[in-house]
Amino acid sequence: MQRAGFSFLICPDPEIIRERVERLLADAGQPFAREVFWGDEELGAPFWSALTVASLFAGRRAVVVRRAEALPPEFWPKLASALKGFNDSVWPFFCLEGPFDRKGGPKLPKGLAEQPYFKVAEKRKWVFVSPGLTRRDMGPRLADWAARRGLVLGPGVAEALAAALPGQLAHADNELAKLELSLGHRTSLELADLSLLSHHEGMDGFAFLDALAGGREPTLVWREIFDKELAGEEMIFPFLGLLLYEARMMWRLAVGEADDVRLPSQVRQKKEAMARRLGAAGLTRIFEAAFAAEAGIKTGARKPDQAMEFLTAELYRLFGGPMRVPGRVSP
Questions:
Q1: Residues 191, 163 contacting (CB under 8 angstroms)
Q2: What is the per-residue pLDDT for 204?
Q3: Which one in 77, 85, 118, 228 has a CA-CA gap of 20 to 30 Å to 192?
Q4: For 92-110, what is each residue's pLDDT tens digit?
Q5: Does Hydrolase show up as a keyword for this record (predicted)?
């Protein structure tokens, strides 16, 4: 493989950057010793020596600059001479780990974009850009994780797991490792096993139901979920999956088939109380409302925000709210 002369990795998730560096080095097919520097510390003589001085005996080295977004603007012009030409002995990596801008695009440090070497990197595709771990990425990652470990994901597990995992790759991997350890000799992961996951703020199906059950203004509830927690239309289906997961769990609690459901006592009590309040008929209506929302989006009959509004209206009525929901649309 023809490796890059130098690489820019732009992503707010440091674990994704680490994973990308490892993959690039592995694909090169040659051993590289790693030397790591930090952009929020002064880069002195050892950095410039590592970047420019070749050694007949030290072998190839990857010079990795973490948090490079913290480097001062005057640093980037100084880099031009070091990156001029291809150095077979040195592979520089500049890791820009700051948050993306409000429009979802990468924020480049002042003075970098106009540098000739950065324009070369863009032209030759030596720049890796990722917004971090998105819900769209979760499905393929989970499929790969399960396949490598010989695990079978039960009905609804992939969707619920994709919705419940935290958005930082390292934290998500920790949660998956916890689940894997809990299985012991079992090779099938079921919805009940997901109760071991640490609470993840946002994407909380039960909190959504509990807010409606408590009489909160339904328009505010669905808008809060859609704007703040779903953070994009690709989150709708994972959220519906997590909502169905909560409904299935409450169904098991209602019929006394949840001996293996492991929940903190206070959380279990709240879910049991809601399960009793709704009964079989009410829980069935949750299933129907979620399936109707999903079908409406997939058939094009409703836009995602409309589907979310109709879903909230139906569930609000389920908990005894008035027939008409204040807001732009009523069912």
A1: no
A2: 60
A3: 228
A4: 999 999 888 877 788 899 9
A5: no
pLDDT digits (tens, 9 = 90+) for 150-167: 999 888 888 888 877 877
Residue 201 clears pLDDT 60, i.e. is over it: no
128, two tokens = 């890796």
Q: Within a 13 Å sphere around the CA of 250, how many CA atoms are in the beta-carbon half?
A: 30
Cα–Cα distance, 242 to 204 (Å, whole number): 7
**What is the 8-class DSSP label of residue 99?**
P
Question: What mean pLDDT do residues 214-221 have?
Answer: 67
The amino acid present at 21, given as its one-letter code, is V
* Secondary structure (DSSP) of 51-92: HH---TTT--EEEEEETGGGS-TTHHHHTTTTTSS--TTEEE
pTM: 0.57
- CB of 289 closer than 8 Å to CB of 278: no
DSSP 137-162: HHHHHHHHHHHHHT-EE-TTHHHHHH
Q: Give the amino acid at 207.
A: A
Residues 43/37, Cβ–Cβ less than 8 Å = yes
Tokens of 173: 């991997």
Residue with tokens 């995992």: 165
**Which residue, chain included where needed, has tokens 């990857």?**
62
In the chain, what are the domains? 7-129 (3.40.50), 135-318 (no CATH)
From residue 114, alpha-carbon distances to 76, 91, 97, 108, 167 in Å are 10, 21, 19, 10, 32
Q: Could you tell me where the DSSP H helices lie in 29-95?
A: 45-52, 75-78
Pairwise pLDDT comparison (276 vs 325), residue with the higher score: 276
Give the C-alpha separation, 4 to 13, whole Å.
22
State which of 116-120, 134-138, 308-312, 326-330 shows the largest mean pLDDT. Answer: 116-120
DSSP 198: P
* Tokens 């299933």, residue located: 287
